[in-house]
From TrEMBL:
Descriptive protein name: tRNA (N6-threonylcarbamoyladenosine(37)-N6)-methyltransferase TrmO
PANTHER family for the chain: TRNA (ADENINE(37)-N6)-METHYLTRANSFERASE
InterPro entries: TrmO-like_N, TrmO_C, UPF0066_cons_site, YaeB-like, YaeB-like_sf, YaeB_N_sf
Keywords assigned by UniProt, alphabetized: S-adenosyl-L-methionine
Keyword Translocase tagged: no
Lineage: Bacteria, Pseudomonadati, Pseudomonadota, Betaproteobacteria, Neisseriales
Organism: Neisseria leonii
Ranges for domain TsaA-like: 5-144
CDD domains for the chain: UPF0066 (cd09281)
């Protein structure tokens, strides 16, 4: 039997591309997003939702729809060297390309359109949303549950700015977003090329950095519109 799923809204996110997005929700607390509901959904649709601290967001991995899927994938947490069944992972390359994120609910604007602001997101700009549900801790929190090959939080990189004046010229919220995102090491798990310069499109800026060992060196942060370095 086939079903048709209609989107209920979309995400406005500082992440403009897949590279650099946190691999799981909550790893980058500074990653704030706005979920804008379609006009069909007015204030009644979110009545009572503001009383919850977190929401489950169901969405579509639209950035990889044309890449298909495979029964075996290489999780980054295993260094990209071991294969696991797709259903034992959070890989976006799934049969139906459906995603699930637990986001911190910050506030709701019950206007036209309805906007739901969240933080700790792992979503790229334009992500189609298919459902929203409240998070209920006494039912869904299982801190003692086994987590398979996912053993604890991932290690993070130390962050250093090549030019501290570049950091100081940026809004503090943007600095936090940049540093927290890069600290998660956005490189493919199999890639370790110290001389390589990486670029990330983030919140209207192009960020360039190197990674050597356990340290990320941020070289520049340039506004997309002018290419002018923020120094």
């Amino acid at each position: 039997m086939e079903y048709t799923i209609q989107t209920i809204g979309s995400v406005h996110s500082p992440y403009r591309q897949k590279f650099g997005v946190a691999r799981q929700p909550g790893l980058v607390p500074a990653a704030a997003v706005c979920i804008e509901l379609n006009p069909d959904f007015h204030a009644d649709s979110v009545r009572g939702l503001a009383d919850f601290d977190y929401i489950w967001l169901h969405f579509i991995f639209h950035g990889v729809l044309d890449e298909g899927w495979a029964p075996l994938v290489r999780p980054p947490r295993l260094g990209g060297k071991r294969k696991m069944g797709v259903f034992a992972t959070r890989s976006p390359h799934r049969p139906n390309h459906l995603g699930l994120s637990l986001l911190k609910l910050e506030r709701i604007e019950s206007g036209k359109p309805v906007r739901i602001w969240c933080s700790g997101a792992d979503l790229i700009d334009g992500t189609p949303v298919i459902d929203i549900k409240p998070y209920i801790p006494f039912i869904e929190a299982k801190p003692q549950a086994k987590a398979g090959f996912v053993n604890g939080a991932p290690q993070t990189l130390n962050i250093r700015w090549q030019n501290p004046a570049c950091r100081d010229a940026l809004p503090s919220e943007l600095v936090a977003l940049i540093e927290q995102s890069i600290a998660q090491d956005p490189r493919p798990a199999y890639q370790d090329i110290p001389e390589r310069r990486y670029g990330m499109a983030l919140s209207g800026y192009q960020i360039h950095f190197h990674i050597v060992g356990k340290e990320a060196l941020i070289v520049s942060a340039c506004a997309d519109e002018t290419g002018r370095q923020a120094v």
